[in-house]
Automatic annotation (TrEMBL):
Pfam family of the protein (one): Peripla_BP_6
Keywords of the record: Plasmid, Signal
Protein's organism: Pseudosulfitobacter pseudonitzschiae
SUPFAM superfamilies per UniProt: Periplasmic binding protein-like I (SSF53822)
Protein known as: Aliphatic amidase expression-regulating protein
Family: Belongs to the leucine-binding protein family.
Spans through the membrane: none
Residues annotated as domain Leucine-binding protein: 30-325
Amino acid sequence: MTMMQKENPLPMELSDLESGRWPGRSECFRVALTIPLNGSAGIWAPSCISSAQVAVSELNKRNGIKGRKVQLIMINAAVEAEEPIEEIVNDLIELGAIDAIVGMHISAIRQRLSKVVRQRIPYVYTPLYEGGETTAGLFAIGETPAEQLGPALSWLQKIYRPRKWALIGNDYVWPRSSNYYAKNCLRTIGLEPVMETYVPFGTGNMSGLVERLDASGADAVLVSLVGQDAVNFNRAFGRQGLQRRMLRLSCAMEENGLLACGTGNLERLFSVSSYFGAVATDANAAFKERYHTLHGDAAPTLNALGQSTYEGMHYLSALLRDFGDVWHMKSSRDNLSVIHESGRSSGRNPSGARPPVYLARADGVQFCDFKLL
C-alpha cells in the first residue's frame, strides 16, 4: 500500500504515550480510532485504517478539527484483545490524551465503552448496528435493522418466496436483536424460523453447524456472523453444497469477506448495506477517487465498514463545527442534521435524510445487481 505520509501521518501507537513522544494538547486534535486489530473482525482493519486516513488528510488540508491538526490514535477494539478497552480509553481520557472517539467495532464493545466515556469526549459509532442507542454524547450513524434488514427480507420473500428461514449469528447483542426483528417480520407473513443458533467468536470449524442447517430443511438463512466467522461459515456452506438450494442473506458481508470466502462458495448469497465499493453514485465516485489518489491502486478493498470510518471522522468534525459544545447533551435519538462528507451520499441534505440502502448479489468475488430498497 502506497502512503503519502507527509500529508497523512501514520496513526500513533499507545506505546508512544509511555515514551513521552505524544505532541502537546494544543498541537493536535487526537481521535481514538477504535477498531478490531485481531480476532474474528480483524479482517476489517486495513480498510478501516486506510479510509480514516483519507478523512484525516482532507481535514488537515483545511483547518483540522477545532483549528488543530488531526492525529489518529490506534486502539484495538477486538473482543479478543488482551487488555480491556474500557480501561485503556478511560485512562487516556483522564490523561487528556484523546479528544474524541471514532469507533468501528461490534456493539458489545460500544456498550462497554459508553459506560466509561460518560460524555467527557464525543463518541461517533460508525457501523451498522441494532438501533436504539440513546446515550448522551454518543452518535451512532450506521444502518439499523428497520432500515436494512426489513426491506431486504421483504424483497427476497417477494422474489424467491422461501418458506423456511434459519437464523445464525455470533452470540452478542446485534445478531440477537437482528434475529428478533427478523422473526417479527416473518411472523407477519405467517412464517416461523426452523432454526435459530448463536456461536461464540472464533468458531473455526463450522461443519457441524452447517450440517445442522442442512438437516433443518431451511431454504433461506440469515447470517449474522462477524468477519472471519462469516468466512468460515460460507466456506463450510459451499463444501456442503447448500448454495444450490438455499438463499443466504447477510447485513455484514462486505468485499473483504467476499474475497476470503472464495468464488465457489458464494452462489445465491445476498448482502444489504448502504454502501458497496462498486455502487455507481456520484458520492462514491468522488470518495473512491480521493481514496486511490492517497493510497494507490493496491489499497485495501473498499467496503461499508471502511467507508464508515471515513464518514465518522467527517461527522465528528462537522458535529463540533456546527453544534459546538451541545454534543454532550445530544445523542443518536436527536437525529441532528450534521452536514458532512460521506461515500454513501452527498451529505448535503439539511433535512437529515438517511442514505439509501442497496441489496446486492455476490457474483464470483464481487457484488453486482444492486437493488435500491
